[in-house]
Amino acid sequence: MTNDFAADVLICGAGASGLTLAIDLARRGVSFRLIEKQAEPFHGSRGKGIQPRTQEIFEDLGILDRTVAAGGLYPPIRIYREDGSHVEKDMVERPDSTPAEPYHLALMVPQFITERIMRERLAELGHAVEFGCGLIGFEHGDDGVTARLRRPDGEDIFHARYLVGADGGRSFVRDALGMSFPGKTLGVRAIVADVLLAGLDRDAWHQFNDGDMERMVAICPLAGTDLFQIQAPIPLEGEIDLSTEGLGRMIGERTGRTDIQLHSVAWASAYAMNARLAERYRTGRVFLVGDAAHIHPPTGGQGLNTSVQDAYNLGWKLAAVLGGARDRLLDTYEEERRPIAEAVLGLSTRLLDAQKQGEMSRGREVHQLDIGYPGSALSMELSERCGGLRAGDRAPDAPFRGAAGQSSRLFQLFKGPHWTLLVDQADREMIPPRPGLQVHYIGPQGDVIDTAGHIRDAYGLAPGESVLIRPDGYVGATFDASRTSTLETYLACMGMPHTGEEPK
Ligand SMILES: Cc1cc2nc3c(=O)[nH]c(=O)nc-3n(C[C@H](O)[C@H](O)[C@H](O)COP(=O)(O)OP(=O)(O)OC[C@H]3O[C@@H](n4cnc5c(N)ncnc54)[C@H](O)[C@@H]3O)c2cc1C
């Protein structure tokens, strides 16, 4: 093993999770290489739902507005009855947004568009995916990883400090580690296809034979495109004709309609549904993120979202450890994210069972806004608080006024790779400045004026208390003014010690 590292991180796979990690590392100035074995970008719609929590992450990564502009909202579901009549219902609850939760509806964006936007963001940050470059072997030790890569023009050896397997459900990295992927096959096989067709309007998600696993078909207009996405269960065995003629025939047979005409198929796939979770997310210097670590049915629209959030959890920890934080910080990636995937496996399997009965409806649980890490080793409650926000909770948004009179939001303060300390009406000298931490003081003499009380409502801080927000938007710890030495210890563990030097 060499100590001559060409990059800090090698990311294997440029799907949604690999791209998220690359954007996060790029904005933190961490050196990495992002390789993708396919010669060109994936062009299927697959994960088309961007949940509210992922929208918050996209805001932080600088891609939310363009993602919204490129997609749209989910239309109502139109359920056709045997007699040809139909009823309409909303697939998801439509709660109003609040000051604490600015994004409240799932967006619909075909996955190939989301990934294109991510690649564009990566280009703005000065990086690009290396297409046509596959990982074909690696060795890993205490110091780093030696990877064997294959490109059309030959093979090459690459040394990195860390390897991240973002290489999908059939993960090469997971297999090469000899890591098991326990779970079950769910006895459901389905097709998903992106098609051009005539005969259906684009203001509804058309569903025929709801709950009948032999005849069901759902046809959804894909926002931001002229395409429709077809989803339908199929027999467990046997060849499926995914050509224009074959899919056209299936639509005719299942809908009983001759006016729906299929013109072409842009992408189609037949797949068996599984619910599986990798036994570990970390082996030494090698990590798994996204579908490489967990797969489950698409019901609930959770896969891409969970994958993005894995990468978002790992990115800042890798950067912190590369910058001097203790290696133990990296263990909290699996500690925090594996239970989340376990819950998603349960949720998506329950929704699949409900779909088989024709009774699926998605509630707040699919929005992922209630995900938190209260039991994490990183979550510290260091003031005697009764009620209010707890360490490990998602840090809510809140509109406020800046001292200069401008309107602002907490998410604007959090945006970027830093930690944020919000201090309620306390001594300005409470904590000296240092790289990687931004400190804001709430109160009449502070830089944050909580005119409408939204910060008070969301955070419930008492005078003298402070809350430390992690770079990924969760509460790391709460403190009161008497605990500054504990706060110093916490920050030092995260790679932000106070050096005692005045900033130059
Ligand atoms: C039919 C279907 C419908 C879905 N619907 C939804 C939905 O509605 N909502 C939702 O949130 N999710 C949905 N998903 C799930 C979503 O698509 C995945 O969770 C998401 O793509 C996972 O992203 P990823 O980056 O982890 O993996 P992937 O998107 O699979 O990307 C992995 C990448 O790694 C590359 N790779 C593999 N091996 C190597 C190697 N050795 N070297 C280099 N590169 C390699 C692959 O080519 C691939 O590009 C759906 C999935 C399917 C199959």
What would you note in describing this structure?
This protein is an alpha+beta fold and 504 residues long. Among the domains are: 7-41 and 108-183 and 275-367, FAD/NAD(P)-binding domain (3-Layer(bba) Sandwich); 380-493, Glutaredoxin, CATH 3.40.30.120. The protein is built from eleven helices and 27 strands. The chain has helices at 16-27, 52-61, 64-70, 111-124, 172-176, 244-255, 303-322, 328-356, 410-414, 454-459, 484-493, and strands at residues 7-12, 32-36, 49-50, 72-73, 77-80, 86-89, 107-108, 130-131, 134-140, 145-151, 154-165, 183-198, 205-208, 217-221, 228-234, 261-277, 282-283, 286-288, 294-295, 380-382, 399-402, 407-409, 419-424, 437-442, 448-449, 465-469, 475-480. The strands form five sheets. Strands 1, 2, 8, 9, 10, 11, 17 and 18 form an eight-stranded mixed β-sheet that branches. Helix 1 (16-27) packs parallel to helix 4, helix 1 (16-27) runs parallel beside helix 7 (303-322) and helix 7 runs antiparallel to helix 8. The chain is globular, with a radius of gyration of 24 Å. The two termini are 40 Å apart. Flavin-adenine dinucleotide binds at residues 12-18, 35-38, 42, 46-49, 111, 134-135, 166-168, 172, 192, 271, 290-291, 298, 301-305, 307.
